[in-house]
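Student: Send me a single protein entry containing the residue sequence and its fold in token form, directly below this note:

Tutor:
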Amino acid sequence: MDSKTSKTEWLYTISPKGKFIDFNFKEIWRYRDLLFLFVKRDVITLYKQTILGPLWYLVQPLITSVIFTIIFNGIANIDVGTAIHPFIFNLAGVTIWNYFSECLKGTSDAFKKNQNIFSKVYFPRVIMPMTVVLSALLKFAIQCFIFLGFYMFFAINGKAGNLDVNTLILFPILVIVMGLLGLGLGMIISSMTTKYRDLTFLVGFGVQLLMYISAVMYPIDVATEKIQNSFPKVAGFINPIIQHNPLANVVETFRYIFFSQGTFSLWSIVFTLIVTIFIVLLGLIIFNKTEKSFIDTV
């Protein structure tokens, strides 16, 4: 027997993470099959025992848009312009907002929802939040096709404004920003819910409140003007929140692309990108720190 000790080269080495941000693209790529498997699981099992199945992807934004049209444009008399039908205006906001909402709510309980898997099998934990973002992207694609169908119908009837070709290139950027914002905020909330379970009950309520200050059902300029005229004492506090809300900027720019109406500035896009990058990095830092010990507290 050879007295020399043979050195074994391990294929994978699992070691404690010492970095604030440990986003190993090479490792995630090795687990890409698992990522796609989780995406398939989420899409198929969500409506497996429902009657309408994937049609719920279509029903929810349509019903929401109809309700917004009746309440905000019919009763509250919010003006969206004579060249745009209120329904297609609301459908645009609801479509892009739903993607953010799905990403945020889905990633906000990543640790709690998958604690059984995390405690038994090793894989990059960030795959779970990424799974939510990708599966929500498929839902958004379906809803986007529905929006485009209604957009073409109202455009033929002269009730969809004008498509701004110059800003159309921003469309994929807006989608990515919404997904990253939902991912970053969701990872922060998910990390906090391992110790503070009350946050789980506040997420749905918080998303609803956030929607009202994110210009989903109204143009930013109309809202700020009405607040200034009706509530001048609080306008100085509320209007800046709406105007500098990254989500409101994304929704407003999304509608500007298709309707050529509303507010649009490159500065707001740059500001939104900076805030998005900060939130994602902060989410990764907190998520990486929490995953080391979450199994003891979840």
